[in-house]
Amino acid sequence: MNPVKAIVAVMALVLVLTACASSTPRTPEPLSTLVPLSTFTPRPEPTETRILEPTATPPPAPTPTPPPTPPPAPTATPVPTAETLPTATPIPPLAPLPERYNSEIPHVFVGSVTINGAPAPNGTEVTVWLEEFNAPLGAGTSSGGDYSVLANQHGAQSFEGRTLIFKVNGQDSGETAIWEKGGATILAVSLN
Question: What gap in Å lies between CA 85 and CA 89, rounded to an integer?
Answer without folding.
Answer: 12
